[in-house]
Amino acid sequence: MTLKPWSHSILLAILVFLWGCSSAHAAAPGQIAVTASVTTESGAKDSLWFVDPERARKQRVLSADGIEDVAWAPNGSLLLATLTRKGRDFLAFCDPARKVWQYALKQGMAYEPSWTSPANGVVWGDYVDGIYYYDLVSAPSSILETTGFTFDHNPVFSPDGKKLAYVHHEWGSSFYVSLIPDFQWNQVPYQGNDHYNGSAYSVQISTRVRTCRLHPSPGNPKA
Predict the structure, then answer these.
(1) Per-residue DSSP letter, 4
(2) Is 185 in a helix, a strand, or coil?
């Protein structure tokens, strides 16, 4: 979306999740998370809102220079987003009561972080040294290492947590959609330079591969 100077624009992204929570601070069923962008004379800002359509109520959760990659945890307990503030990137997590946790990324970039299954943490590709895991309690840890002119990003776990798919890029070469078909936490960190950890499929349809998603079926998906 191209924003004209001093214009106000909303609806960059909308995600809906039926929370089904019963605590006093839980969001109402049908709660909507909305990211909105506003451009004024002083510059552009993004904000994240919780909208309750049944009660016709909205609440602002946070604001930043940029907000992307908004995703509910599979159990609806937390909302994940990536933030940009003054040139630095953060992972942000907020609960139904609008309490927010933030983690500053060391390398300054995160590409489409996603929740693990079960939803006890998130994984992301950090530029350019591998894939990391964070459970909001312990320090982030590497689950896939890479060196040299390589980049592993857009990781996603299967719903049963047994497979990990990600995009492997060797600078000046092809993109590969890589699959670790039997992911074992006691074997981390895997080596990203060997994109044949399990199966790898060369992608020749684009100069950049941005999204990787596993089908939730119990079979062994090929992409």
Answers:
(1) P
(2) helix
Q: What is the mean pLDDT of residues 178-207?
A: 72
Q: Is the pLDDT of residue 122 over 90?
A: yes
For strand 88-94 and strand 122-126, is the pairing parallel, antiparallel, or unpaired?
unpaired
pTM of the model: 0.73
In the sheet that holds 164-170, the strands lie side by side as 150-157, 164-170, 175-180, 199-203
Pairing mode, if any, of strands 66-72 and 190-191?
A: unpaired
Take residue 13 and report the two structure tokens written for it: 């992204």
pLDDT digit string, tens, across residues 7-53: 334 333 333 333 333 333 344 456 788 888 888 777 788 999 988 87
Query: Which residues are paired to 168 by β-bridges?
Result: 152, 176
Cis peptide before 128 (omega within 30 of 0): yes
CA gap 64, 100 in Å, rounded? 13
Count of other CB atoms within 10 angstroms of residue 37: 18
- Find the angle CA(216)-CA(219)-CA(223) to the nearest 5 degrees: 70
